[in-house]
Design a protein that fits this description.
- The structure is a homotetramer.
- By secondary structure, chain A is an all-alpha fold.
- The first copy, chain A, is 85% helix and 0% strand.
- The first copy, chain A, is built from three helices and no strands.
- The first copy, chain A, is elongated and about 55 Å long.
- In chain A, 34% of the residues are buried.
- Chains in contact: A-B, A-D, B-C, C-D.
- The interface between A and B is large, with 48 and 48 residues.
Chain lengths: 94, 94, 94, 94
């Protein structure tokens, strides 16, 4: 179990919607839609993507803590938190 | 002409690639891939999307200035710049 | 005239407030305030800073377009827009 | 202990530097420095601030996990992770 299996369908539904929005932008570019409207749509995709990322991160943190409590391997836990922090940093900067 | 028509094929190619990356994330979720690897992939999509947005914005600004020089309608120009600024603000906050 | 001189006092007031908020965070760290409350304060500073940046950018774009209309030096205009785009890109990525 | 006390001096040093950078921007505005140079400086401050935020978050997560292991109060842990996730979301969106 990776920690996000329970809500997998919810994530897939949101990712399908994002995929559709990216295709929508392709259509907008093909049809020469006004640039500002395309930028608005890109901002909406960014927000939807961030929301997926924050959801995954939340479950990952729960999973890490649950693991820490049952296994308690300090070295492994440090590694996991360093990994999570690096992922957060990439998200904040992207 | 919307200002980005000349490089339309380049934008479409990049958006197709982003669409493929979003589908890749769906596969990762279905296959229970490690959460941190999915987050890394999401950060890559965000960066690719921002790069498309900045490209579109650049061409839009060129277009606005070119229009300003040939038509010189001050009210129209103010409206365009306000619109571009609002789009930049949405991008910076998304 | 750099394009933002008219509202200079407004910018200075907002920057003074941001400076005070940064000092506030120093106090919070010194007094061992709860980490999450410090992070909330940092997010508020980021938003205030972005708002200053978007304001400056808006005036800069107005200024560029106004210059383009009176001087109309195409090479100079291209340079200005490239510069503004690069600044936007740094903001979006920071 | 709030989890970041050990490196408190490091945080204070970085926050002092950020405070100085904010004052630097005030001087730039007063002296009518070129707008793009001010924006570059704002991007640098944003990055420095994010780096402080990610550092605090990292220590907070370590602290939460350490607490979870010694105290193991599931309700309390859920609350902490929800709180940390909300802070991450605010940072990603700011």
């Amino acid at each position: 179990m990776r920690g996000y299996s329970m809500e997998r369908d919810d994530y897939l539904k949101r990712l399908k919607r994002i995929e559709g929005q990216v295709r929508g932008i392709q259509r907008m570019v093909e049809e020469d839609v006004y640039c500002i409207d395309i930028l608005t749509q890109i901002s909406a995709i960014n927000k939807a993507m961030q929301s997926v990322a924050v959801g995954l991160l939340n479950e990952h943190l729960h999973h890490c803590v649950a693991n820490a409590m049952t296994e308690g391997d300090a070295g492994e836990i440090d590694k996991k938190i360093a990994e999570a922090t690096a992922a957060i940093e990439r998200l904040v900067k992207s």
